[in-house]
Amino acid sequence: MYEDKNIVERTLSGEKEAFELLIQKYENPMFNYIGRMVGNRELALELTQEVFLKSYASLHSYQAKYKFSTWLFKIASNLIIDYWRKKRIPTFSFDQQDTRGYQRGSLQISDKEPSIIKKFELSELKGRIEKTLEKIPSSLREMFVWRHINELSYDEIAEIKGIPVGTVKNRVFQAKEMILQRLEEKS
Amino acid sequence: MSCLPVEQVYMYLEKQLSAPENKMIEKHVASCLRCQKVLEERKLFLQAVESLPSWQVPANFARQVMENISPVKVSLWSWLSALAGGFLTFIVAFTVYILATGQNMSSLFINLYQTLWEQIKNSSLVFIKFFKVMSAILSTVRQLLESLFKGLLQILTVIKPEVQILIIVTFILVSFLFIYGVRRKSSLGEK
Fold first, then answer.
1. Do A118 and B41 touch (CB under 8 A)?
2. Residue A94: how many CB atoms within 10 A of its CB?
3. Of the candidates A89, A94, A74, A82, which has an alpha carbon nearest to the alpha carbon of residue A33?
4. CB atoms closer than 10 angstroms to residue B46
5. Low-confidence spans in chain B with pLDDT less than 50
6. pLDDT of the residue at A101
7. Three-state DSSP class for A97?
8. Which of residues 19-78 of A touch B (CB under 8 A)?
9. Is the ipTM beyond the 0.90 threshold?
10. Are A28 and B56 in contact (CB under 8 A)?
11. Is the pTM of this model over 0.90?
């Protein structure tokens, strides 16, 4: 984190090439996040590049009291929302999303049936999780990806989205349970 | 003790709980088959999620981004600061020059005024020439447009009214399609 701030300072003082170090550090985490949000490799690459171009152009507005990664993911999140708006893809809030059949904590666990997770080999399970992830509401998917794929803390996610930590924890929990429930429905 | 909330099971697996809370969960799970199953299933699920394949950018991605980078935008405040700094430096240098050379201020200002007035007179002549050329160009354009309009009127007297309407409708349609096409092309995602 401290290193990121030094690199930002070096870039702002005219050492343009220093910014490449930040790109190298965050290109894959950013690509993993955007890729899972838009579900298309080429588009994800294009948007990932745009995130870095935007962040470079507005680097003077970065405040060192925040983590650079938090600031970068905030830019990416806004960029994805703008993209969906321009392409007229609905950017829905969680309340408006399709949460059919899902009730918080309602996943039924039978004592006799084998566990849904145990039914699959790990590789098959991973494939099924990826496919199910694409189908859950974007606001839940975003937080799930940040928490469990980008491995951000709940506090960092709350800072990116500007919402309480409790809300973030709740949404990540709902995302996980929704994935499990949909896996169960399909099996 | 009643069964553990699933949310708490996740927090336990993600090491988000305090030591006493962890102990309490471990104690409960040791004696509850249902919660053992919940814990085991969520644990396997999280392990699968954490081992999902990582998306990798192409090897030269960072270099490509750097090639497309444009210079850092300088804020308006920075521009104003630089301008104010420059102006202050000029004032200080000017004052030092006056003090060092011991020149009479009034004669210096008269010289400055005369030089400026000469510059204004010279640039006025250039402006007058520029306006003359521009008015000549505009008059030629006007004559051209008049001839074009007269020509069109003559053509219209020959063409039947139905054909005239057809031409006007086609023109409006083509214009609309052109504007629509340009708008679509200039929007994001049409690159």
1. yes
2. 16
3. A74
4. 16
5. 187-191
6. 44
7. coil
8. 19-20, 23-24, 27-28, 31-32, 35-36, 41, 44-45, 48-49, 52-53, 56-60
9. no
10. yes
11. no
Nearest to B188 among A48, A57, A83 (CB): A83
Q: How far is A80 from chain B (nearest CA, A)?
A: 12
Residues from chain A that touch B41, judged by Cβ atoms under 8 A, are 109, 115-118, 180
Contact residues, chain B, for A20 at CB < 8 Å: 62-63, 65-66
Beta-carbon contacts of A8 under 8 Å, excluding residues fewer than 6 positions away, are A22, A59, A62, A64, A68
A87: chain B residues, CB-CB within 8 Å: 188-189
A169 chain-B contacts, CB cut-off 8 A: 7, 11
pLDDT at A115: 65
pLDDT of residue A94: 45
Both tokens assigned to B50: 């954490």
Helix, strand, coil abundance in chain A, percent, nearest 5: 70, 0, 30
Q: Confirm if A136 and A178 have CB atoms less than 8 A apart.
A: yes
Minimal Cβ distance to B57: which of A28, A118, A173: A28
Low-confidence ranges of chain A (pLDDT < 50): 1, 93-114
Q: What whole-number distance in Å separates Cα of residue A54 and Cα of residue A19?
A: 12
Nearest-CB residue to B72 (from A12, A86, A180):
A12
C-alpha B189/C-alpha B25 separation (Å) is 51
pLDDT (0 to 100) of residue A100: 44
